[in-house]
Design a protein that fits this description.
With 265 residues, this protein is of the alpha+beta class. Helix content is 18%, strand content 42%. The strands form 2 sheets. Strands 9, 10, 11, 12, 13, 14, 15, 16 and 17 form a 9-stranded mixed beta sheet that branches. An 8-stranded mixed beta sheet has the order 2-3-4-1-5-8-7-6.
Length: 265
């Protein structure tokens, strides 16, 4: 087990769930992935739930704010890119045509963050670590393994993320876009298809599992929904898109061979 203690700039380092029902989501994810859950008090009241495996953080969760509930926002996962200078990233986001949703702010002694939308409307966070470095475990079963931008404007978002994070871009024979931080391929992007329906641009979260079919059955047992049956991902492995009992969507994927080592050190 390799524990990540330091992420390079420009690499996704954290995901957390904004949910309409903390208790239901906690029961689902601890049951599905075997995560341990710890309630941590936050300034101004309430708690932030830290999910972990063997004491190492893997994801977080917080209750949705009332104003978001009133707007009918569904429960959703948020992906955070690590960067040592959130203020500088905020300037780049605005200059590149993005929208600042939550300007740079301190999160107690844990770090500093912002929330923004790219030109296609996909939401993402940026995390400048202090006490909280990000996920201690990734790229192993029951942890984060991939972040994927599903977008209604591939061209605009490719330019945006290259400008903001200096990501390199590589496209395969199926027009699947892969983003590189330095030389590490660490995220992907694809165009939203008409057959998907009215899906907004979003950053999708992938969790690695050992057996997609067994985990898909477990999802249903725990009150979640499958957004389709498990399907092969070429020679790479197999995946299934899942909706938790509170409505948040994520993907589980098993791999036919080894995955990349965790980033950083």
């Amino acid at each position: 087990m390799k524990v990540v203690t330091n992420y390079p700039d420009g690499v996704f380092s954290w995901v957390d769930l904004t949910t309409t029902d903390v208790a239901a989501a906690k029961a689902f994810y601890t049951g599905l992935f075997g995560w341990e859950a710890e309630d941590r008090p936050i300034d101004g009241g309430g708690v932030y739930v830290m999910f972990s495996i063997e004491g190492h953080s893997v994801a977080g969760m917080g209750a949705m704010q009332e104003e978001m509930r009133a707007q009918g926002v569904p429960s959703h996962w948020v992906s955070y890119v690590k960067h040592d200078d959130v203020n500088a990233v905020a300037e780049k986001v605005t200059a590149a045509g993005g929208t600042m949703v939550l300007p740079p702010m301190d999160v107690m002694q844990e770090g500093r963050m912002l929330m923004a939308q790219d030109p296609s409307g996909a939401m993402f966070g940026v995390w400048q670590p202090a006490n909280h470095k990000g996920a201690g475990l990734v790229n192993m079963p029951n942890t984060l393994v991939w972040n994927e931008l599903q977008t209604r404007d591939i061209a605009a978002t490719k330019k945006f993320y290259a400008d903001v994070f200096d990501w390199g871009i590589q496209t395969d024979e199926n027009d699947y876009v892969m983003y590189k931080a330095d030389e590490r391929i660490q995220a992907g992007s694809m165009a939203i298809q008409d057959s998907w329906g009215p899906v907004p641009s979003n950053w999708a979260v992938y969790f690695m599992v050992e057996d997609v079919d067994a985990m898909a059955a477990k999802v249903k047992e725990l009150g979640g929904n499958l957004m389709g049956e498990p399907i092969p991902a070429g020679e790479m492995g197999k995946f299934v898109v899942v909706q938790d009992p509170t409505g948040a969507v994520f993907t589980m994927m098993s791999f036919s061979g080894p995955v990349d080592n965790p980033p950083g050190h």
